[in-house]
Design a protein that fits this description.
eight-stranded mixed β-sheet; single chain; 679 residues; 14 strands; four-stranded antiparallel β-sheet; Rossmann fold; Bacterial polysaccharide co-polymerase-like
Length: 679
């Protein structure tokens, strides 16, 4: 006896569609969460998810051990010396960097400049390193370009020029170079990734040195340019000063000695003479007035005339001297202005000359004190372990990716499921009662199926067939069906097995049973049991022999069997003739139960022709295999032929699959009571 672990249910519909629970056996020894929630689904499908995770981990391990090359990262730290810019100050020659963020960003781009990296590539001969020069690398199996060249007939790659090789090397260095600025500071991290730890440290250090050397050269060049410009400018200023001094001397030699005091003395003399001239004019006016009062021939008049003449002579003399002094004053004033202008220009030239000369001397003295705007704070330390690939991180990511992909696959697979896993699903879609749910029979060969049912009458499959028989009889208790047709949507759904098992079960009740094989195209009864094969259903339909002479008793079934035979006429046309109806009518008279096994509905129209002549039609649906569309289309075809379906049968139910999908609990509520009833 086989141990029984649990129960599962069949729903039997009476004529009034009263649901009666009927028990059959399923094993639910393993943990079952049940339900249809995502956590329950993921738990049920944990084996598939674990398999996907293992695959991802194996791929990650394969990548780490055979594909990935270790990469090492070395970092050199450089500090930027910040100084404020002054235009004509000595510090502007030493450094031109300020402390603004734009300056920091500029220096980052300088470190990444192709000119600096070209110097690095040439200095360290990175062009000859396959790690940085892609033209020197061996073609990979996965290289698309190599396969394209082979397909086009250019298997040999083109030899690059020196410029192309250098540009490709610089591109590779740029991809492996990272420049970062420490927040709120003037400190940079120069990080380089290379295939060897020593190489990474060497490249990072050398790039920092070339950067500082480039800055120093810029400072030296700026100093030399400033010195040259100042020297030229001092020479120009010296010449200008000499010319100004010569102009002062020449002008001073061409004129009388001119000074502000001399001009002031002339102004005093002019004022004095103007005052004396004014006095004489008053005196002259008084003498003329006196002359007018005197007699013309008097001695007093003659003296007055003499005085007037003398005053006029003096006035003329003073006026002439005044005019001469005014001309001299004007001339000396103009010369004084020109002389002072020349002296001021000469003094200005002297001041400018002395200022630039002092700057030139400062630069000459400090010529050897230039320094770069940056300095190395820390040279790169040779890395002890690779920075990439990070084995721990990759394995964790692979684990997470495996879980996500596995879970996504399980969820999508469940969402895309369009088959039947429970009787309730089949009933909801077909709108027909569920007559039975038959578990898988643990036999591979068809010949072993009947032997299994006969030797294990208390097995889950045998009990399920009994439940099917009971459901069928209770579908119409007043007039139990006598002619039962069994069909399905497509082949391999278990309809023939159900027909044989159902006929065998009716025969075990002592009822005279006939099993008819109407699948004349495949004729699979011979795979279940041996028959003489003298007559077939065709012999009866063509009236060659009587039904009682054509049938053959099969001991393993315990009933008569009318096998199919080879026909030259189309099967559907053959079954449409009156011979089939006459055969069924004769079978009703000779037997209590007639079970007809027909071809699938969606494959050939035979079942639609036969269905209208049967009392009951059982529609077999394979568990988790037949799709909803197939069942609906098959049922529509039967309905179009006025062949009403009595009930549905869910066949080949996998107990382990039921538990895996979370339906074991639905059928196993009374599992603890089954051990004393079933094998």
């Amino acid at each position: 006896m086989e141990p029984v672990s649990s129960w599962w249910y069949l729903t039997i519909y009476s004529h009034f569609q009263l649901k009666v629970p009927v028990m059959a056996v399923l094993d639910t020894s393993s943990l079952d969460l049940g339900g249809s929630s995502i956590p329950a689904l993921l738990w049920r499908e944990k084996a598939r998810i674990i398999l996907v995770v293992v695959v991802f981990l194996l791929l990650a391990g394969f990548y780490l051990t055979l594909v990935a090359q270790p990469r090492f990262t070395a970092t050199t730290i450089v500090a930027l010396e910040s100084r404020d810019e002054q235009i004509v100050d000595f510090e502007s020659v030493i450094s031109s960097l300020g402390g603004e963020s734009s300056v920091v960003n500029t220096e980052v781009e300088v470190l990444r400049s192709r000119i600096l990296l070209e110097r690095l590539a040439i200095d360290l001969d990175l062009v000859s390193d396959p790690a940085f020069n892609p033209y020197l690398r061996e073609a990979s199996i996965l290289d698309v370009g190599t396969w394209l060249r082979r397909l086009t007939g250019n298997a040999t790659p083109r030899t690059p020029s020196e410029r192309e090789a250098l540009d490709a090397t610089v591109d590779s260095v740029l991809q492996q170079l990272t420049i970062t600025n420490i927040r709120e500071s003037f400190v940079f991290r120069i990080s380089i990734i290379a295939d060897q730890p020593e190489k990474a440290a060497r490249i990072a250090d050398r790039l920092a040195e070339l950067y500082i050397d480039d800055q120093f050269r810029l400072v030296v060049d700026a100093t030399e340019q400033a010195s040259a410009w100042l020297s030229e400018r001092v020479a120009e200023l010296r010449a200008e000063l000499r010319a100004a001094e010569v102009a002062v001397s020449t002008f001073n030699a061409e004129i009388d000695v001119v000074s502000a005091e001399a001009v002031a003395g002339l102004n005093v003399q002019i004022a004095d003479r103007r005052e004396r001239l004014a006095d004489l004019e008053v005196e002259l006016t008084e003498a003329e007035a006196l002359l007018d009062e005197l007699e013309a021939e008097s001695s007093a008049a003659r003296r007055a005339q003499t005085d007037i003449a003398r005053i006029n002579a003096r006035i003329e003399s003073l006026q002439a001297g005044l005019d001469a002094l005014e001309q001299q004053q004007k001339r000396q004033s103009a010369d004084l202005l020109v002389f002072e202008q020349l002296e001021r220009e000469a003094e200005a030239s002297r001041l400018i000359y002395e200022n630039f000369l002092a700057r030139l001397k400062e630069i000459s003295v400090q010529q050897g004190l230039q320094q770069a705007d940056s300095r190395i704070l820390s040279y790169a330390v040779v890395p002890r372990s690779p920075s990439a690939p990070k084995a721990d991180l990759l394995m964790v990511l692979s684990l997470i990716a495996g879980l996500l992909v596995g879970s996504g696959y399980v969820v999508l697979r469940e969402m895309g499921q369009s088959t039947f896993r429970t009787g309730e699903d089949l009933e909801a879609i077909s709108l027909s009662p569920i007559m039975g749910q038959i578990p898988q029979i643990p036999k591979k060969r068809r010949k072993d199926v009947i032997e299994y049912l006969r030797e294990k009458p208390s097995s889950p499959a045998a009990e399920a067939i009994r439940n099917l028989r009971t459901s069928l009889l209770m579908s119409n208790p007043e007039a139990p069906p006598e002619v039962i047709m069994v069909t399905s949507s497509i082949p391999s759904e278990g309809k023939t097995t159900q027909s044989l098992a159902l006929a065998m079960n009716f025969a075990s009740l002592g009822r005279k049973t006939l099993l008819i094989e109407c699948d004349i195209r495949r004729r699979v009864f011979a795979e279940y049991f041996s028959m003489a094969g003298q007559h077939s259903i065709l012999s009866v339909m063509t009236n060659e022999v009587l039904l009682k002479d054509a049938v053959e008793y099969v001991p393993s079934l315990g009933c008569d069997v009318l096998a199919a035979g080879r026909a030259e006429m189309n099967a559907a046309d053959l079954f449409s003739q009156p011979g089939l109806a006459e055969l069924i009518q004769e079978a009703r008279a000779l037997y209590d139960v007639v079970v007809i096994d027909t071809p699938p509905v969606l494959v050939v129209p035979d079942a639609r022709v036969i269905g209208v002549k049967a009392d009951a039609v059982l529609y077999v649906v394979k568990w988790d295999a037949t799709t909803v569309a197939q069942v609906r289309n098959g049922m529509k075809m039967l309905e179009s032929a006025n062949a009403s379906i009595t009930g549905m049968v869910l066949s080949q139910v996998d107990p382990a699959g039921m538990r895996r999908y979370g339906y074991g609990e639905r059928y196993g509520a009374y599992a603890s009571y089954g051990a004393n009833y079933y094998e």
